[in-house]
């Protein structure tokens, strides 16, 4: 893993981790419920990420996971692939926005195609794994969005996801 003194490069990234907190940013769970998203179906989405050098490292076909944090069932809920380059936008979709201060804030949105997992990969299971327990979001929990999984961490994650889901999402098995 790249240290805080060492800048991240694409060779360090096994999968991008797009993060969200439904309690203080955008209500992911309400969006799932209201939009009737079904597990096992690929869907095109976008997710906002910070304005950092990392944003410019993200490229189409990169693997990604959607990490939902907070106190309600934190874990990885979606896996997929980036489908385009990040684009600067003038604010976050207000339909499920919890923090109105973000409504008009310029940020970047990353397009991706993802699969809602049948069962999220819980934070507790990831932290208990000797490889996944060293993920950047655990080691530096206040780090901005996006974070990443190393290639080794991505491979350790595979055992928590069914082969069918990996295949549908276009991930290696």
Please tag this protein with its features.
ph1033 like fold; 7-stranded mixed sheet; alpha+beta; EVE domain-containing protein
**Gross morphology:** globular
Which H/E pattern describes the elements? EHEEEEEHHEHH
Work out the strand percent: 25-35%
- CATH fold name, please? ph1033 like fold
Largest sheet: 7 strands, mixed
CATH superfamily: ph1033 like domains
Give the count of helical stretches: 5
Q: Give the count of structural domains.
A: 1
Whole-number average pLDDT? Answer: 91
Number of strands: 7
Low-confidence stretches: none
* Cα end-to-end separation: 22 Å
Secondary structure class reads alpha+beta
Question: What CATH architecture do you see?
Answer: Roll
Give me the oligomer status: single chain
Indicate the CATH class: Alpha Beta
As a percent range, the share of helical residues equals: 10-25%
Radius of gyration: 15 Å
